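Please check this chain.
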Amino acid sequence: MSTTVSAVVARAPGSAPALAQVQLPPVRSGEVRVAIRAAGVCHSDLSMVNGTLRPPYPLILGHEAAGEVVEIGDGVTRVQTGDQVALNWQPACRMCWFCTHGQPWLCATTSGIAALANGSTIDGEPAYVTLGLGAFAEQVVVGENAVIGVPTGLDWASAALLGCAVLTGTGAVRNTARVAPGESVLVIGLGGVGLAVVAAARAAGATTVIAVDVSEAKKELASSAGATDFLVASDGLAKEVRARTEGRGADHAFECVGRSATIRAAWRATRRGGQVTVVGMGRHDDLVELSALDIFSSARTLRSSVYGNADPDVEVPQLADDVLAGRLALDHLVTERIGLADVPAAFDRMSRGEGARSVVLL
């Protein structure tokens, strides 16, 4: 039978999200119903309503979440009722070319899909769910491959962040860029993902970690995450970075904003032969221009990191163990604890560049 829950819904591009009553579909074979306990407010959610992305509407927002399994469908073997799980917004099919060639983060079945229809309705009207989850809701119904078991001792907020911000940021450092001890790192954009990159870079042994944001207020957060230097974004960023890296520029730059201007800034602030990793998700019409001569003579590498180039089924449990063992601290990532009705205000704070992660607790 179907279930009625409260959820945060966007009705149209640019419209203010608001609480609505949503009818969830019945749990079918291979699916599970999860009671959401915590959900992080990620910039990707904001991108669903501000025009950066073009999902269908009406749209149930949210994708970075954790909760408790309350019902399982026929044939489900991955979890049991009562299990604590983090949600995976890009679960791998394990059968396509990318999955069978060691790149599940590029799964042909789920990669690049902003929203899916899953049988949910709002006032009788078919609804879509963000990144296949729609996790700003009291409950969700998802395929069993979209849930990952986490230890019962892990707090809900941390479990939620592991499923997106932490995995994305940590994976960009460990898997994509492979930052080595003694290297220098530049991080542009200090939201939840950017702060996770800062922490992962220090954990990887980077001796210089330069954190950059448009807001001076992010300095304390950057320091808490492990940054050795903090800079307010300016036209002179490349010069300031070179001054802190023996005149060369950073070995690695991570762009965590998703804008052509900050990608170019990261490129200019990276040394010859260095690596630029784009973590932020930008607009399709925001074009990055680099000269052909600069690309050749600088010998820099420009690449993206999709979901941390990670296999969430493997790495989320490992990150959970790191948190419980005290090897990975996440407290600095959560700056607001809110309810579902407070999500629109959290989007406003995010648009102004305030704080790190707001986490919905249910």
